Amino acid sequence: MHSPIIHEVLAGLHATPPFISPKYFYDELGSKLFEVITLLDEYYPTRVEKSIMQLFQQEIANAVHSCDVLVDLGAGNCVKASELFDSIKPKKYRALDISKEFLELAVVDLQKRFPNIKMDSQICDLNEQLQLPDLSNDRKLFFYPGSSIGNFDPDKASGFLKNIATQCDGQGGLLIGVDLEKNEQILNNAYNDSLGVTAAFNLNVLRHINRVIGSNFNTSNWQHYAKFNKSQSRIEMYLRAQQDVGIVYPNGVHHFKAGDLIHTENSYKYTQGSFTEMLRNAGFKNIHTWTDANAYFLVCYASAES
Ligand code: AVJ
Fold this sequence. Notes:
This protein is of the alpha/beta class. It has eleven helices and twelve strands. It starts with a helix and ends with a strand.
């Protein structure tokens, strides 16, 4: 009766505890709100990752050595990949993302700035098995910045890394950024910024869900809640019902009580040791790491070559 997508979203809302997948953050407005998050004082990951990439640009390029195709996993506005072009000199650039309009516009823009790199885009959900049949013979550099890996539970993250290592097929590797465990207050502040942008980003998922399933969530009935869970080493984000609400969607209604939480995101934090071990277990042969002076963030090049 319902489409598979609607079915999946409804199953999440009816689950105990209820959840919405973080992939629904990234409609057009959500992608723009995330760009704003990366500019916030409290949200250090993007800024610190960029400083590491800049400071160690030459070392990273030496480790990568050469690259037929740069495969950008979760390209967004493509800015981070474009900052690698001069040092890594890829022949081709493949941008993957879940947000179609946003991605295609970004790639068209980038192609004008770098006419000598062959570019294309591929809409994909990294929760599904990655398929790149036309690139099977190329020496690939997979690029997964921003600690997006943090959205996966650790066993899912391991499976994802194994899949990338397999796709490398003995050549190339993965350049990945991951957020590190640190002082709890710094972590909590990064997801509870004083301008309320992260709150808007979290609440916007309800507007997106309304369009996807035809529901009537009213964002003013919900409140942003984000907190570091120490035992699981992850930031957890939720939306909390501020009053009893009945959510109506085609062929149904679902009641939430005041105080009920919808889980919208986990953002796992790793230690350098736990993360490099995961890369090794995934089958990568050689692991290079770079971090900042405060050890807030880690950049790794995991090579598939021994
Ligand atoms: C894009 C998943 C890396 O977990 O920090 C930012 C998303 N959520 N603020 C993160 C996010 C709230 C972000 N990732």
